[in-house]
User: What shape does this take?
Amino acid sequence: MPEGHTIHRLANLQKKLFAGRVVAASSPQGRFSEGAALIDAHVVRTAEAVGKHLFQHYRGAPTLHIHLGLFGKVATGVGEPPVPWGALRLRLVTDEAWLDLRGATTCELLEPYEVAALIARLGPDPLRSDADPVRAWQRIGRSPTEVGALLMDQKVLAGIGNVYRAEILYRHRVDPFLPGRQLPEEVWVQMWADLVTLMRSGVRTGRIETVRAEDRARVRGPLQRSEAGYVYRRQGQPCRVCGTEIRTEVLVGRNLFWCPHCQPPGARGC
Ligand SMILES: [Zn+2]
Assistant: This one.
């Protein structure tokens, strides 16, 4: 599933291509015909992301809300749109650009109060300048649930997926199974600041790169894909710092990865 940085990149691109433009909206597949009719011939005011949710706000029409889920795909381009193919839920076309949406978990229109209610249910998003990390701490610092599970809970934090979860826990040497209420607040403050930096870099580059320069095998040259992370999908391989085999286990339905030496049971971060 795409993580928050990917959704923010999509929102930035949609803002650039569609804000201030009239769109022709259609649902070639037919599943979103009524919704498409309501935004058709309206002007896109702006686009924004909150966590993994994408919103397109219109002048004089409801807001388009998209959640890609596991299988959703957005394609955009400039010039003439391609001939429609497959299960094309929504197509937006302007004089200069087009957008195709397929396979999304959610594609719906929301009134402003519904948008507000949805956003209120989400935790703070490290990629938004209006985010308040204290809201996340109020949940984490009181919870008996594992930190590794809390980080993936969109009600606690918005936009964090499986890769950032594993990497941020490693970078701060936190045991993924530590109950939230045992995590020191100062460690959380550092983790949040680190998430902001890492995720902003993810928005710029489109990639998740978490390995510090001093922990790379090769100091020079561009970062290879295989060198991008400390623990994610590196089970059985040696830890970049201590050489211990990286482990994996399912936590909240997704594989968690960690180093049993750098993040031993009870490790509360440094
Ligand atoms: Zn290690």
Q: What stands out?
A: The radius of gyration is 20 Å. The first strand starts at residue 22 and ends at 26. The pocket of zinc ion is lined by residues 239, 241-242, 244, 259, 261-262 (CB under 6 Å).
